[in-house]
TrEMBL record:
Species lineage: Bacteria, Bacillati, Bacillota, Bacilli, Bacillales
Job of this protein: Catalyzes the irreversible reduction of 2,3-butanediol to (S)-acetoin in the presence of NADH.
Keyword Oxidoreductase: yes
Keywords per UniProt: Oxidoreductase
SUPFAM superfamilies: NAD(P)-binding Rossmann-fold domains
Identification of the protein by name: Diacetyl reductase [(S)-acetoin forming]
GO biological process: bile acid metabolic process
Domain of life: Bacteria
Protein backbone atom coordinates (compact mmCIF):
# COMPACT_ATOMS: atom_id res chain seq x y z
CA UNK A 1 0.00 0.00 0.00
CA UNK A 2 1.28 3.45 -0.88
CA UNK A 3 2.05 5.77 2.01
CA UNK A 4 0.22 9.08 2.39
CA UNK A 5 1.69 12.46 3.38
CA UNK A 6 0.16 15.82 4.19
CA UNK A 7 2.42 18.76 3.35
CA UNK A 8 1.42 22.26 4.45
CA UNK A 9 2.92 25.12 2.51
CA UNK A 10 3.11 22.53 -0.26
CA UNK A 11 2.64 25.11 -3.01
CA UNK A 12 6.17 26.51 -2.97
CA UNK A 13 9.72 26.23 -1.66
CA UNK A 14 10.53 23.52 0.87
CA UNK A 15 7.01 22.04 0.78
CA UNK A 16 6.94 21.74 -3.01
CA UNK A 17 10.44 20.23 -3.22
CA UNK A 18 9.52 17.71 -0.52
CA UNK A 19 6.28 16.78 -2.30
CA UNK A 20 8.26 15.97 -5.44
CA UNK A 21 10.94 14.04 -3.51
CA UNK A 22 8.36 11.98 -1.58
CA UNK A 23 6.50 11.27 -4.83
CA UNK A 24 9.73 9.71 -6.12
CA UNK A 25 9.38 7.27 -3.19
CA UNK A 26 5.82 6.47 -4.31
CA UNK A 27 4.15 8.51 -1.56
CA UNK A 28 0.70 10.01 -2.29
CA UNK A 29 0.35 13.62 -1.19
CA UNK A 30 -2.27 16.02 0.16
CA UNK A 31 -0.88 19.38 -0.86
CA UNK A 32 -2.17 22.02 1.57
CA UNK A 33 -1.66 25.70 0.83
CA UNK A 34 -3.43 29.05 0.93
CA UNK A 35 -2.34 29.56 -2.70
CA UNK A 36 -4.42 27.64 -5.24
CA UNK A 37 -2.00 28.36 -8.01
CA UNK A 38 1.04 27.01 -6.16
CA UNK A 39 -0.86 24.07 -4.69
CA UNK A 40 -2.23 22.96 -8.04
CA UNK A 41 1.19 23.28 -9.64
CA UNK A 42 2.63 20.94 -6.99
CA UNK A 43 -0.18 18.43 -7.59
CA UNK A 44 0.83 18.30 -11.26
CA UNK A 45 4.51 17.88 -10.34
CA UNK A 46 3.66 14.97 -8.01
CA UNK A 47 1.51 13.31 -10.67
CA UNK A 48 4.36 13.68 -13.18
CA UNK A 49 6.39 11.47 -10.82
CA UNK A 50 3.65 8.81 -10.91
CA UNK A 51 2.19 9.34 -7.42
CA UNK A 52 -1.32 10.57 -6.60
CA UNK A 53 -2.02 14.02 -5.16
CA UNK A 54 -4.89 16.30 -4.19
CA UNK A 55 -4.87 20.01 -3.44
CA UNK A 56 -6.68 21.22 -0.30
CA UNK A 57 -6.93 24.97 0.13
CA UNK A 58 -6.44 26.05 3.73
CA UNK A 59 -5.29 28.95 5.84
CA UNK A 60 -3.35 27.06 8.53
CA UNK A 61 -3.96 29.84 11.05
CA UNK A 62 -7.66 28.84 11.09
CA UNK A 63 -8.43 25.76 13.13
CA UNK A 64 -11.50 24.87 11.03
CA UNK A 65 -9.37 24.85 7.84
CA UNK A 66 -6.83 22.60 9.55
CA UNK A 67 -9.46 20.14 10.75
CA UNK A 68 -10.84 20.14 7.21
CA UNK A 69 -7.52 19.28 5.52
CA UNK A 70 -7.05 16.39 7.95
CA UNK A 71 -10.61 15.09 7.42
CA UNK A 72 -10.40 15.45 3.64
CA UNK A 73 -7.10 13.58 3.51
CA UNK A 74 -8.47 10.70 5.57
CA UNK A 75 -11.64 10.50 3.50
CA UNK A 76 -9.70 10.58 0.21
CA UNK A 77 -6.63 8.45 1.02
CA UNK A 78 -7.83 6.55 4.13
CA UNK A 79 -4.78 7.29 6.31
CA UNK A 80 -2.01 9.77 7.18
CA UNK A 81 1.45 8.20 7.45
CA UNK A 82 3.58 11.33 7.19
CA UNK A 83 3.00 14.98 8.06
CA UNK A 84 5.35 17.77 6.94
CA UNK A 85 4.09 20.64 9.10
CA UNK A 86 5.79 23.35 7.16
CA UNK A 87 3.67 26.38 6.18
CA UNK A 88 5.17 29.60 7.43
CA UNK A 89 5.96 33.22 6.69
CA UNK A 90 8.89 35.46 7.51
CA UNK A 91 8.64 38.79 9.28
CA UNK A 92 9.23 42.30 7.96
CA UNK A 93 12.85 42.43 9.11
CA UNK A 94 12.06 45.38 11.40
CA UNK A 95 13.46 45.62 14.90
CA UNK A 96 10.96 44.32 17.45
CA UNK A 97 10.16 47.71 18.97
CA UNK A 98 9.33 49.05 15.49
CA UNK A 99 6.89 46.24 14.69
CA UNK A 100 3.17 46.56 15.24
CA UNK A 101 0.82 44.17 17.02
CA UNK A 102 -0.77 43.05 13.73
CA UNK A 103 2.57 41.63 12.64
CA UNK A 104 2.95 39.72 15.91
CA UNK A 105 -0.54 38.23 15.57
CA UNK A 106 -0.05 37.30 11.92
CA UNK A 107 3.29 35.53 12.31
CA UNK A 108 2.31 33.74 15.52
CA UNK A 109 -1.04 32.77 13.95
CA UNK A 110 0.50 31.10 10.90
CA UNK A 111 3.87 29.83 12.15
CA UNK A 112 2.99 28.70 15.67
CA UNK A 113 -0.80 28.31 16.04
CA UNK A 114 -0.95 26.83 12.53
CA UNK A 115 1.66 24.24 13.46
CA UNK A 116 -0.02 23.44 16.79
CA UNK A 117 -3.44 22.99 15.16
CA UNK A 118 -1.85 20.75 12.54
CA UNK A 119 -0.21 18.43 15.04
CA UNK A 120 -3.34 18.48 17.22
CA UNK A 121 -5.53 17.03 14.47
CA UNK A 122 -2.99 14.88 12.61
CA UNK A 123 -1.59 13.21 15.73
CA UNK A 124 -5.09 12.17 16.75
CA UNK A 125 -5.37 10.14 13.53
CA UNK A 126 -1.84 8.76 13.90
CA UNK A 127 -2.36 7.74 17.52
CA UNK A 128 -5.45 5.73 16.54
CA UNK A 129 -3.40 4.05 13.78
CA UNK A 130 -0.55 3.36 16.23
CA UNK A 131 2.00 4.89 13.84
CA UNK A 132 3.00 8.07 12.06
CA UNK A 133 5.91 10.42 11.47
CA UNK A 134 5.85 14.20 11.72
CA UNK A 135 8.48 16.74 10.68
CA UNK A 136 7.93 20.30 11.88
CA UNK A 137 9.75 23.15 10.14
CA UNK A 138 11.68 25.27 12.62
CA UNK A 139 14.63 27.40 11.44
CA UNK A 140 18.14 28.42 12.41
CA UNK A 141 16.21 31.28 14.05
CA UNK A 142 14.65 28.55 16.25
CA UNK A 143 18.00 27.50 17.72
CA UNK A 144 19.89 30.77 18.04
CA UNK A 145 18.96 34.40 18.67
CA UNK A 146 19.38 36.93 15.86
CA UNK A 147 18.42 40.56 15.38
CA UNK A 148 15.55 41.64 13.09
CA UNK A 149 13.62 38.37 13.55
CA UNK A 150 12.36 38.46 17.15
CA UNK A 151 8.76 37.44 16.35
CA UNK A 152 9.74 34.81 13.78
CA UNK A 153 12.38 33.45 16.14
CA UNK A 154 9.86 33.18 18.98
CA UNK A 155 7.56 31.06 16.79
CA UNK A 156 10.40 28.82 15.62
CA UNK A 157 11.68 28.23 19.17
CA UNK A 158 8.06 27.29 19.93
CA UNK A 159 8.12 24.69 17.13
CA UNK A 160 11.04 23.01 18.86
CA UNK A 161 9.20 22.86 22.19
CA UNK A 162 6.21 21.36 20.40
CA UNK A 163 8.44 18.74 18.78
CA UNK A 164 10.24 17.59 21.92
CA UNK A 165 7.20 17.53 24.19
CA UNK A 166 5.07 15.60 21.69
CA UNK A 167 7.68 12.86 21.86
CA UNK A 168 7.44 12.79 25.65
CA UNK A 169 3.70 12.17 25.37
CA UNK A 170 3.24 10.05 22.20
CA UNK A 171 6.42 8.13 21.28
CA UNK A 172 4.92 5.19 23.17
CA UNK A 173 1.94 5.29 20.77
CA UNK A 174 4.14 4.86 17.68
CA UNK A 175 4.60 8.52 16.80
CA UNK A 176 7.90 10.05 15.73
CA UNK A 177 8.13 13.84 15.80
CA UNK A 178 11.25 15.64 14.61
CA UNK A 179 12.07 19.19 13.56
CA UNK A 180 14.32 20.63 10.90
CA UNK A 181 16.17 23.89 11.36
CA UNK A 182 17.17 25.17 7.91
CA UNK A 183 19.43 28.16 7.51
CA UNK A 184 18.68 30.62 4.69
CA UNK A 185 17.50 28.53 1.74
CA UNK A 186 16.75 29.70 -1.84
CA UNK A 187 12.93 29.87 -1.80
CA UNK A 188 10.31 32.48 -2.61
CA UNK A 189 10.08 33.48 1.06
CA UNK A 190 13.78 34.23 1.32
CA UNK A 191 14.01 35.90 -2.09
CA UNK A 192 11.22 38.32 -1.04
CA UNK A 193 12.76 38.92 2.38
CA UNK A 194 16.19 39.72 0.91
CA UNK A 195 14.63 41.92 -1.79
CA UNK A 196 13.30 44.13 1.01
CA UNK A 197 16.48 43.75 3.14
CA UNK A 198 19.41 43.34 0.65
CA UNK A 199 22.14 43.94 3.23
CA UNK A 200 20.90 40.89 5.16
CA UNK A 201 21.59 38.59 2.19
CA UNK A 202 25.25 39.62 2.11
CA UNK A 203 25.48 39.18 5.88
CA UNK A 204 23.86 35.75 5.69
CA UNK A 205 26.11 34.44 2.92
CA UNK A 206 29.29 35.72 4.50
CA UNK A 207 28.26 34.22 7.86
CA UNK A 208 27.67 30.74 6.41
CA UNK A 209 30.86 28.64 6.48
CA UNK A 210 29.91 27.03 3.12
CA UNK A 211 29.43 30.57 1.66
CA UNK A 212 26.13 29.85 -0.06
CA UNK A 213 22.44 29.49 0.75
CA UNK A 214 20.89 26.02 0.96
CA UNK A 215 18.59 24.61 -1.72
CA UNK A 216 15.01 23.33 -1.28
CA UNK A 217 16.12 19.98 -2.73
CA UNK A 218 18.73 19.55 0.04
CA UNK A 219 16.04 20.16 2.65
CA UNK A 220 13.60 17.81 0.88
CA UNK A 221 16.18 15.03 1.08
CA UNK A 222 16.47 15.47 4.87
CA UNK A 223 12.69 15.59 5.39
CA UNK A 224 12.21 12.45 3.29
CA UNK A 225 14.82 10.63 5.35
CA UNK A 226 13.23 11.72 8.65
CA UNK A 227 9.68 10.81 7.58
CA UNK A 228 10.36 7.41 6.12
CA UNK A 229 11.29 4.20 7.88
CA UNK A 230 15.03 4.77 7.39
CA UNK A 231 14.87 7.03 10.47
CA UNK A 232 12.80 4.68 12.63
CA UNK A 233 14.76 5.34 15.89
CA UNK A 234 15.19 9.11 15.50
CA UNK A 235 12.70 10.97 17.68
CA UNK A 236 12.44 14.48 19.13
CA UNK A 237 15.52 15.68 17.23
CA UNK A 238 16.11 19.12 15.81
CA UNK A 239 18.31 18.64 12.75
CA UNK A 240 20.12 21.73 11.55
CA UNK A 241 20.68 22.03 7.79
CA UNK A 242 22.50 25.32 7.38
CA UNK A 243 25.96 24.90 5.84
CA UNK A 244 27.48 25.16 9.34
CA UNK A 245 25.88 28.56 10.05
CA UNK A 246 24.66 27.95 13.62
CA UNK A 247 27.77 25.96 14.55
CA UNK A 248 30.08 28.93 14.24
CA UNK A 249 27.84 31.57 15.82
P1 LIG B 1 7.73 29.75 0.56
O1 LIG B 1 7.19 31.12 0.67
O2 LIG B 1 8.45 29.36 -0.68
O3 LIG B 1 6.59 28.67 0.83
C1 LIG B 1 5.67 28.82 1.88
C2 LIG B 1 4.31 28.33 1.43
O4 LIG B 1 3.41 28.47 2.54
C3 LIG B 1 3.72 29.15 0.27
O5 LIG B 1 3.26 28.28 -0.76
C4 LIG B 1 2.58 29.90 0.92
O6 LIG B 1 1.48 30.14 0.04
C5 LIG B 1 2.19 28.98 2.06
N1 LIG B 1 1.48 29.69 3.12
C6 LIG B 1 1.77 30.91 3.64
N2 LIG B 1 0.85 31.25 4.56
C7 LIG B 1 -0.03 30.20 4.62
C8 LIG B 1 -1.20 29.97 5.39
N3 LIG B 1 -1.66 30.88 6.26
N4 LIG B 1 -1.86 28.81 5.19
C9 LIG B 1 -1.41 27.90 4.29
N5 LIG B 1 -0.32 28.07 3.54
C10 LIG B 1 0.37 29.22 3.71
O7 LIG B 1 8.68 29.60 1.83
P2 LIG B 1 9.65 28.43 2.32
O8 LIG B 1 10.99 29.04 2.44
O9 LIG B 1 9.47 27.19 1.55
O10 LIG B 1 9.10 28.25 3.81
C11 LIG B 1 8.60 27.03 4.29
C12 LIG B 1 8.89 26.93 5.78
O11 LIG B 1 10.31 26.90 5.96
C13 LIG B 1 8.39 28.09 6.62
O12 LIG B 1 7.87 27.59 7.83
C14 LIG B 1 9.65 28.90 6.88
O13 LIG B 1 9.56 29.64 8.08
C15 LIG B 1 10.67 27.80 6.97
N6 LIG B 1 12.06 28.18 6.78
C16 LIG B 1 12.48 28.68 5.60
C17 LIG B 1 13.80 29.02 5.46
C18 LIG B 1 14.32 29.60 4.19
O14 LIG B 1 15.41 30.16 4.21
N7 LIG B 1 13.64 29.48 3.08
C19 LIG B 1 14.72 28.85 6.51
C20 LIG B 1 14.24 28.32 7.70
C21 LIG B 1 12.92 27.98 7.82
Amino acid sequence: MSKVAIITGGGSGLGQATAVRLAEEGVNISVVDISEEGGNRTVEMVKDKGADAIFIKADVSKNEDVKNYVDETVSHFGTIDYFFNNAGISGSGKYFLDSDIDEIEKIVGINLLGALYGVRHVAEVMKKQGSGAIVNTASSAGVIGQDSVVIYSATKHGIIGLTKSMVAEYAKDGLRVNAIAPGPTETEMVRNFYKDNPEMKENAESGIPQKRLGTPEEVAELVTFLLTSKAEYINGEVIRIDGGFTNVK
